[in-house]
Amino acid sequence: MNIHELPYDLPKTPKGKSHYLSKVLTIPQHLLSGKYEEESEAMAGVILYRHLTKEEKYQSMLVIHRLQNRPLKGRLIEKITDVTVNPQWGVWSLSNTELLQDQKFHDTINTYASTLGVSASALSSKDFAVTLWKTRKVSKGGWVSLVIWGSVYFNASELSKANKEISNRSRLLDSAHY
Questions:
Q1: Which of 48, 80, 150, 155 has the fewest Cβ atoms within 10 angstroms?
Q2: Rounded to an integer, what distance in angstroms lies between the CA atom of residue 80 and that of residue 74?
Q3: What is the number of helices (H) and of strands (E) in the chain?
Q4: What is the reported pTM?
Q5: If DSSP codes are grouped into helix, strand and coil, which group holds residue 31?
Q6: How distant, in Å, are the alpha carbons of 37, 122, 127 from that of 40?
Q7: DSSP-based three-state secondary structure for 8
Q8: How far apart are CA 122 and CA 142, in angstroms?
Q9: Has residue 176 got a pLDDT over 50?
Q10: Cα–Cα dist 56/53, whole Å
Q11: DSSP H or E stretch at residue 150
Q12: Does 108 score more than 80 pLDDT?
């Protein structure tokens, strides 16, 4: 397990790598301490964690636990826990195959919703807000609309995350490898 196994075209400098990976993992840059090589290797281990063997996972955790930067260490362990519970909580942890399947799924739902004319348009949401303001209650139809709008919005958000991660990946690695 090392940083060169990642599907990203990383910057050449240790600082650049560290900053890039912190963006992928949505870790605030102020949590980086300046030991960029160590921190980059730890972040690479987090990204690859779900796809590592038991021994490699152990080695990855050792790299994380050796960090002197306690806030970053805690955040990295949190990221591993999140994707262990639900890989969708970190699209960066998905293999290329999983990521492309996720994108296809959300794109299909988006296409069906568009075909049916279901969208969270600003005009319909404005009408809903006006009715809600006047009556101070939500009808059954209003609740159905809220659920549909929420679902459409959630799906669009998930599709956007998958598309962004696909564009972040500069190369596709063998899915058996990552």
A1: 150
A2: 10
A3: 7, 0
A4: 0.72
A5: helix
A6: 5, 42, 49
A7: coil
A8: 15
A9: no
A10: 5
A11: helix 140-168
A12: yes
